[in-house]
């Protein structure tokens, strides 16, 4: 017969074993439940192979950052024979090469030399030529310089006279950089010309180039909408260009990492970017950051609307009363009258542009 102390120890042992048994049973039940649920989920709907599930997981992670999925745009291809910038290793040695390199430096870091704190002169707004002529003027549909030199000298519809390339560069200082005209005989402008000549050394006069200037987007049926454009700006542009389009200053405070889109340091209303067809085509192929012709991140409508929003914001004004004396040659999106047609300044600025284009064609036919 067991002693009382032995009975107590036996009871304790039985209790412990019972507890462990309960714990193990509960864990086993939980594991079985999880297994059953997993099998049920995998078996429901369509059956997918491990690779298919792996792909689905990848899609769910990457889809939010995929610009094509987000914007509903279509990938496009650049023709195999499209113009490509010459390799910089082909820049000649000696003084000629030094001028070419200096010319590129001036275009890429214009504000360092001509900005408010420039080392050569203080005559521009702090933007760089490269802000509008991307990758040193070598990016397709990014206002490249491929055919620039080959097209000059030429008659300017704006000024009504034959201009050399140097004068066109000077106009950019006055309009896109909202500054003063530089001395075109000096080393700086001559170096810029040397770089542009090297960039377009294989381009012939009159040669049609894929990707030159900016893409001409199909006209919308109605006018571009600045209100809708503001929503696009807030979602797609504000993080780089600032809440008020003021841009992002570089650490040295002399230039911009991301340029201002309006305000006193942005391009003035005489610049090419102030024309909506130019800005919309530029935005479509280059913005937001990372967008290209092959993989745009905005629909055409979004590009038109955000361009309308940007160009309805305040910016420096340039007197242009002497521009486009021949009204029949005035661009359809030039936002300042008078015009050869009966359309308003507002329609010339925001569209719809097709009726203006059609009227312009009729005027041309009558003239001929």
TrEMBL record:
Source taxon at top rank: Bacteria
PANTHER family named in the record: BLL4482 PROTEIN-RELATED, CYTOCHROME C DOMAIN-CONTAINING PROTEIN
Residue ranges, annotated region (Disordered): 47-73
Record-given protein name: C-type cytochrome
Domain Cytochrome c: 98-200, 224-314
Transmembrane segments annotated in the record for this chain: 20-40
Organism the protein comes from: Mucilaginibacter agri
UniProt keywords, alphabetically: Heme, Iron, Membrane, Metal-binding, Transmembrane, Transmembrane helix
Compositionally biased tracts (Polar residues): 47-65
Molecular function GO labels: electron transfer activity; heme binding; metal ion binding
